[in-house]
Design a protein that fits this description.
There is one protein chain. The protein is mostly helical. The chain is 91% helix and 0% strand. It has five helices and no strands.
Length: 235
């Protein structure tokens, strides 16, 4: 194939083709590197997003537990000061759930878990508020408190199950995204190495062809000088 091209194309055209091919490969290598950097940044943003979801999920349990502790303290002591942080803790937990909904808006699986989480949280809040209202109205007794505590425990277990499922889903996504990021990086590096080696090979071939053309021209000039000298001798 190379000999056919060598016979049909001039030396200048061959050199131009080889040099253009090497330059195109180098440009392609640079383009691949740029695209790889963009995709790696996207993958890193997804990884950071997963970590953000995991941290936010852990805040829900903390806020809900704080509201539950304040309720228990109030119904046992009757001190109004002990329930001042109940509603702020509930509000904080609800804000965190809303934040989780926004963070996982593009994931239908997580949205289903959010629905389950919201329902369990609403039940837990209702039981907490009912217990506080009974205490304020003087209708609190051990039987009601025991039933309320069991209901709160069930709602808490449902919340914990939803949060745990969401954490597992985020961990699965994290592993998948990290593996994709590593795969993209390896493919890009492999392609860049191959393209770079091919470009170096073509540049070497270009140099070889230029060097051969230079030697041929020098030989032709030398032969021409000998011919001119011979003609002068003959004359």
């Amino acid at each position: 194939m190379f000999r056919f091209v060598k016979r049909t194309l001039s030396a200048k055209a061959r050199n131009a083709i080889v040099f253009s091919s090497a330059l195109a490969l180098l440009c392609l290598c640079g383009l691949v590197i740029c695209l790889t950097i963009v995709r790696l940044l996207q993958a890193e943003r997804l990884v950071s997003h997963t970590h953000e979801v995991q941290v936010t999920l852990s805040r829900i349990a903390v806020a809900a537990s704080r509201a539950g502790r304040d309720r228990v303290e109030f119904v046992h002591s009757g001190d109004p000061a002990s329930m001042q942080d109940v509603e702020p803790a509930i509000h904080n937990a609800q804000q965190t759930i809303d934040e989780i909904k926004q963070l996982t808006l593009d994931n239908p699986v997580q949205q289903n878990h959010c629905t389950r989480l919201q329902g369990a949280f609403d039940q837990r809040v209702n039981f907490i508020r009912q217990s506080i209202q009974r205490k304020k109205a003087g209708k609190w007794n051990l039987q009601n408190e025991s039933e309320t505590q069991q209901s709160i425990v069930r709602a808490s277990a449902e919340m914990d199950g939803a949060v745990r499922n969401m954490q597992q889903e985020e961990q699965r996504l994290l592993v998948k995204r990290q593996a994709r990021s590593r795969l993209l990086f390896r493919l890009a590096i492999t392609f860049c190495i191959i393209a770079f080696l091919l470009a170096i090979t073509l540049l070497g071939l270009h140099y070889y062809m230029l060097n051969g053309e230079l030697h041929a021209r020098q030989n032709a000039e030398e032969a021409l000088r000998h011919l001119n000298a011979r003609l002068l001798d003959i004359q």
